[in-house]
Design brief:
Layout lengths: L10 E7 L5 H13 L5 E7 L14 H6 L2 E9 L2 E2 L1 H7 L3 H6 L6 E8 L6 H14 L3 E2 L7 H5 L10 E3 L9 H21 L2
Parallel strand pairs: 1-2, 1-3, 3-5, 5-6, 5-7
Antiparallel strand pairs: 3-4
Length: 195
């Protein structure tokens, strides 16, 4: 593993995702664009080890957790819960929990489902639980986000979401904006908390 040292003036927002059909990965890209719209914020994209691991982004290492100012998790919905590879990674963070590595840092979650009513909100809530145990400051998508009130596709107050219908539906314009604004929101919170 090559560990990159970032200047202390750079605020790293770590986006860890797992993607089976590519939708969650696409969402991570829009969220990262939103992060990088905030001065001094840097989006770090990582994936978790699994059967369909993307070769585009490095696999996350524990050092990434230590070096981040904020954390965003993304997973497809599998039976109303996060995918097993994401849960497997989270279950290895006992040492970070014990040492308070993530305590006080902002966090958020996002998901994609193949079917309508596939359990998006329960997945988002399930991903929040370990983050709360880590002492993170959870943020969702507030209703001040105008697209949340008008979207006919994905989007929840718990975090950005998308319905892909087995990869047939691309991410809608509303979903893209919700993702980007969510990334900006988490980065802005990190900036305020790190003053």
């Amino acid at each position: 593993m090559v560990h990159i040292e970032y200047p202390s003036s750079i605020m790293n927002v770590l986006i860890i995702y797992y993607s089976t059909n590519g939708s969650t990965k696409k969402m991570s890209r829009f969220i990262s664009r939103g992060v990088e719209n905030i001065d001094g914020a840097n989006a770090i994209l990582r994936t978790v080890a699994g059967e369909n691991t993307s070769q585009d982004d490095p696999i996350v290492h524990k050092e990434d957790l230590k070096d981040c100012s904020a954390l965003i998790l993304g997973s497809p919905t599998h039976f109303g819960n996060m995918a097993a590879p994401m849960k497997t990674f989270i279950d290895t963070t006992t040492s970070e929990w014990y040492n308070g590595t993530l305590t006080g840092k902002p966090a958020g979650v996002f998901t994609s489902t193949s079917s309508l009513h596939g359990g998006q909100e329960s997945t988002l809530l399930s991903m929040m639980l370990p983050l709360l145990h880590h002492g993170m400051v959870i943020s969702g998508v507030p209703y001040s986000e105008k697209k949340l009130n008008s979207t006919k596709t994905g989007g929840t107050p718990y975090g950005p979401s998308h319905v892909s219908f087995n990869g047939k539906n691309d991410i809608s314009d509303d979903e893209k904006i919700i993702c980007m604004n969510f990334g900006s929101r988490i980065a802005s919170l990190a900036k305020k908390l790190n003053k």
